[in-house]
Design a protein that fits this description.
alpha+beta; globular; 9-stranded mixed β-sheet; single chain; 2,3-Dihydroxybiphenyl 1,2-Dioxygenase, domain 1; 3 helices
Length: 138
């Protein structure tokens, strides 16, 4: 069974937004984000990775012409047992694979990577698929 392990929020002020979630909900900061796609923070409760992101390009934001000004819930991610099989199902039903913004990066730990394959589902909701999961998750 797939598990939701990743949620991303788009914000113009990642530090202020991250501080809110750390203070109110006692989430821990796992690491800062400084990539070609976005700046921000990865927070965790030990089970789910919460990405607080300020996207750098329209392509990375992937929300149309207003993508860089978009704020709020941006996308979520499922950790799956077999990413290839899940992607085959998504391809079969005609989901839009977002190849230009797919992420494959090591986040500074020897045994954990964020490897995401991005799709747009119904009504343009962005969904990430990962077999390895996200930093800060169990």
């Amino acid at each position: 069974m797939a598990r939701i392990k990743h949620i991303a929020i788009a914000t113009p002020d990642p530090a202020k937004t991250a501080q809110f979630y750390k203070e109110v909900f006692e989430l821990e900061e796992y690491s800062p984000v400084d990539s070609p796609l976005a700046d921000g923070y990865y927070l965790t409760d030990g089970h789910i990775n919460l990405a607080i992101l300020n996207f750098k390009t329209l392509e990375a934001a992937d929300k149309g012409e207003d993508g860089l000004s978009f704020t709020g819930f941006h996308h979520f991610g499922f950790q799956v047992e077999d990413a290839e099989a899940t992607c085959a199902k998504l391809d079969e039903i005609g989901a839009d694979r977002r190849t230009r913004v797919t992420v494959d990066q090591t986040m500074g730990t020897a045994n954990h990577q964020n490897v995401e394959i991005k799709y747009k589902g119904p009504f343009d909701v962005i969904v990430d698929v990962s077999q390895s999961g996200w930093v800060g998750t169990d």
